[in-house]
Amino acid sequence: MKITFFLLLSFLSLSEFNAEETRNLLSARRKLLNGVQFLNVVTTGKCNNQIYDSTNPQTDIASYYASSETMCNQISSALRAENNQYTSIYNRKRPGPGCYWRGSATGNLQYNRRSGNTRDCTNDNQCLCLQPCNAGTFGITTEQMCQPCATGRVSSVAGHFGQCNDECIAGQYQDQTGQTSCKICPIGFYQNLLGKDACKSCSAGYYNNENGKVSAMDCKGCSVGFYQNLPSSSDCKNCIAGQFTDIADQIACKTCTVGKYQNEVSKEACKSCPSGRYNTDQLKIV
Fold this sequence. Notes:
Blueprint: H1 19-31, E1 37-42, E2 64-65, H2 69-79, E3 87-89, E4 98-102, E5 108-112, E6 125-132, E7 137-138, E8 147-148, E9 153-154, E10 166-167, E11 172-173, E12 183-184, E13 189-190, E14 200-201, E15 206-207, E16 220-221, E17 226-227, E18 237-238, E19 243-244, E20 254-255, E21 260-261, E22 271-272
Parallel strand pairs: 3-5
Antiparallel strand pairs: 1-6, 2-6, 4-5, 4-6, 7-8, 9-10, 11-12, 13-14, 15-16, 17-18, 19-20, 21-22
């Protein structure tokens, strides 16, 4: 799964950052919090006003403030490796609580400790907002990028950490990584366990003609007169003329013995030759 990094174009402005800081900021998106979250610069509204629109590549998943000094310190280190310092303030007229860039390219990184602020982000107070890992991915402290969900697991919402929390339920599976939903076991298969990357086959002699089955008991045995020599089947086959099965769940038909015949299909027994007649061959159909 391709993970794309981009900045909000409709809400963001990097004009206040010089070229070097802009490069550092783009790099910080890949490093911030070990890839658990990514960084957006917001100059209008508030961090949590950013709404995700999958049809518009210029928008991002809803983001939120870097609301701890630890986060601000990590942002500072990622943005300005030569000067990983920020100023801690307490100001009701600034955005927060959280980390933001105060002033132009000659400004500095600040952390506003004051909670309950409702001030919008501006060009002079550019909020540094965090974006969770997208649906289908999760964050992990040992990696710098969001990781795709493993097979058998999915996430339909953003922000998972450690692993994708949603296991595929019984009757479902997922054989690809980085997915937001599970697949349903097709006919001829079932799955009785959680979090699996494949479904189990109905055995030969059995069949299943419905999707999403959750137990081997959902595989039905072939009736007498029928058989199935292949696994993962959706139906059974007819015993041809000259053959029969007198027991259910069979993988092959029996052949009519000498002195008997069968001129019909799907039968559980052969017919005896009439009085005054005989046969010396098997598989007789007349």
